[in-house]
Amino acid sequence: MAYRTVAGSQTYAFADLKDLMAKATPLRSGDMLAGVAAATAEENVAARMCLADVPLRAFLNEALVPYEEDEVTRLIIDSHDALAFRTLSHMTVGDFRDFLLSGVATSEVLAAIAPGVTPEMAAAVSKLMRNQDLIAVAKKCRVVTRFRNTIGLPGTMAVRLQPNHPTDDPAGVTASILDGLLYGCGDAVIGINPASDSVPVLSELLKLIDGIIQRFEIPTQACVLTHVTTSTEVINRGVPVDLVFQSVAGTQKANASFGIDLATLKEGREAALSLKRGTLGDNVMYFETGQGSALSANAHYGVDQQTLEARAYAVCRPFKPLLVNTVVGFIGPEYLYDGKQIIRAGLEDHFCGKLMGVPLGCDVCYTNHAEADQDDMDTLMTLLGAAGVTYIMGIPGSDDVMLNYQSTSFHDQLYLRQVLGLKRAPEFEAWLQRMGITEPDGSLRKQHGIHPLLAASPELAA
Amino acid sequence: MSDAATDGDRPADSVSEPAVIEDSWRRLAGVTPARIALGRAGTGMPTREVLRFALAHAQARDAVHLPFESARMAGDIAALGFETLELASAAPARDAYLRRPDLGRRLSEESRALLASRAGAPVDVALVVADGLSSTAIHAQAVPFLTAFKARIAEAGWSVGPVCIASQARVALGDEVGEALRASACVVLIGERPGLSSPDSLGLYLTFAPRAGRSDAERNCISNVRGEGLSHELAAFKLAWLLKEALARQLTGVSLKDESDLLLVGGRPPPARIG
């Protein structure tokens, strides 16, 4: 169905809903690369004006990616909760924005409508929202998950301790884990990106992290971020696996380029559940996403990258993940060109995920060929902290020496906690105090001598 | 006034403690290149670490944006005894190169015509030296690497076309170059995406039967060629091993695994034997 609007002295026509959505998206390099972006600033606003008048129901009737060709579209449509949608069923996209900002949309109401919100609806309304709207509404959303601790409670922010090493050296990995724990990080997960994809190496890394967690009775979980089928194989060999990881995208074809489909994810989740390793809950999945992944796999169907990103959260949703994060600036400047585009995308992703009921964190990051720097990351992490982000990454000194990009550091989370008063997952916060790592107010205690945790390092124990 | 000035010169007890809290586990930093045990000033990094990081980022940024000295590289490579040819991709400038990867994967019209005029008899291998995302890497590594690889070419007796020095180029540009030069295989030397601790890392991509439209799964890659990473000699040996296998088995990519390690003696490559 074609859409049409008058803005200024011009009449603008849009071929269909996906054309309208793409042209209404705040400008970014990936949509320009795909050739779907608005040609002028006026056309961009005209598209937003037109989109504001589109009924939310339209997204249930007009698929952006064909239903017959794509299992993600089928998942979205077939599992849509009509009862939860009833409150929204009479609204246009513009009404939806006003409703979300209003006092009527309390945390309870937002949780109740979440199963009725499709990713396309979330993406559409985000295109009409300024950064402050994305922050204000996300802040009201509550998504709480549990494995060995409780993540997502109001006033908290968790951190993934990311102890990557260029050769997966056990001593090097251990050193980064200890440094992170002593800086009060690791409640989201101690999760490593391995350099290797060999099963023996991955098994050793899992045993190493599990060994530290067991030895010091840390209320957190371990993850080695490898392909879901590899995790399943490792589980079958009897290796301790807490969380099963997978990168996911918003179309079946893009997921196929990752070597997965919905059935593969289901198998991975069932394998993890069979181990019954969670003590407080059974949220056993960890997903990563990022705008541009579908275009990069040539699997975007002419849909803008932000809408496809929201569809990735629809892929995550039925698997009840503990953690989902958008690796926002990793993909490079051909998708998100500079600090402004990365900041906007991070806020959009977080908002869409939370609105859909997904525990969204953010890898606040950039590569060295993007027009971005530490100041941009300070801005984005502060805004996300204000928006109630579920978790961020913790990487020694912001420098990932294996993946060659910059993310948030152990120090950065201390800064956010101090400035915004954010606490850790309560079970982890209590453990840090018991271990003499933090003060009762959550700030770091000054360490003297050799802390008992350091006994885990053969180098220091020697 | 003078009293106040005197007081100001002498720190009060409350501020006489060092502002930077050092970490008691600094010894751990010896076992990883990761930036651990940095200490802290309040919740922030100490000044020395902020500046150390800023310098590393500046070097990585410069590696991306430093203009590629194509003519100088052509001269230096010609001095090694190679025929050379300077080419450019369809990306007119760095900004367009970064935004439009597709432009960096194909030749400009002028370069396409120039290359066509130089194509002669079929050759075993086409060599492309591409700036990629780090001209710093090419400036530093291309000549020493080609010096080492020249000995391997002589040892195997391969015919090579002109070494093509390509500006604003991505890996896949080698497909069009290799095809035009009627090469059985193409080797692209390219500046890798710079990391904070590795702004000058060279990547080597080998593609059998180069044709426009080849996928990355059809290539073999040798990464991290630089002083602190894989040495030029070892990289040249590995590449020669892969090239020999590729020409014999008529393929590159996922089904060609690098087993050259089996031939190393004490971790070092055997010297090239030149007839």
UniProtKB/TrEMBL annotation, chain A:
Its EC number is 4.3.1.7. It is an enzyme of class 4 (lyase). GO terms for molecular function: ethanolamine ammonia-lyase activity. Its cofactor is adenosylcob(III)alamin. It is found in: Bacterial microcompartment. The keyword Lyase applies. Substrate binds at R160, L161, Q162, N193, E288, D363. InterPro entries: Aldolase_TIM (IPR013785), EutB (IPR010628), EutB_dom_2_sf (IPR044939), EutB_N_sf (IPR044941). Adenosylcob(III)alamin binds at P194, Q246, S296, M402. Binds between the large and small subunits. The keyword Lyase applies. Pathway: Amine and polyamine degradation; ethanolamine degradation. Keywords: Bacterial microcompartment, Cobalamin, Cobalt, Lyase. Signal peptide: none annotated. Its main location: other. It catalyses: ethanolamine = acetaldehyde + NH4(+). The basic unit is a heterodimer which dimerizes to form tetramers. The heterotetramers trimerize; 6 large subunits form a core ring with 6 small subunits projecting outwards. Belongs to the EutB family. Catalyzes the deamination of various vicinal amino-alcohols to oxo compounds. Allows this organism to utilize ethanolamine as the sole source of nitrogen and carbon in the presence of vitamin B12. HAMAP family: EutB. This is Ethanolamine ammonia-lyase large subunit. The gene is eutB.
UniProtKB/TrEMBL annotation, chain B:
Its EC number is 4.3.1.7. One of its GO terms (molecular function) is ethanolamine ammonia-lyase activity. It catalyses: ethanolamine = acetaldehyde + NH4(+). Keywords: Bacterial microcompartment, Cobalamin, Cobalt, Lyase. Adenosylcob(III)alamin binds at V171, E192, C221. Binds between the large and small subunits. It is found in: Bacterial microcompartment. It is an enzyme of class 4 (lyase). Its cofactor is adenosylcob(III)alamin. Pathway: Amine and polyamine degradation; ethanolamine degradation. Catalyzes the deamination of various vicinal amino-alcohols to oxo compounds. Allows this organism to utilize ethanolamine as the sole source of nitrogen and carbon in the presence of external vitamin B12. Belongs to the EutC family. The basic unit is a heterodimer which dimerizes to form tetramers. The heterotetramers trimerize; 6 large subunits form a core ring with 6 small subunits projecting outwards. This is Ethanolamine ammonia-lyase small subunit. It comes from Ancylobacter vacuolatus.
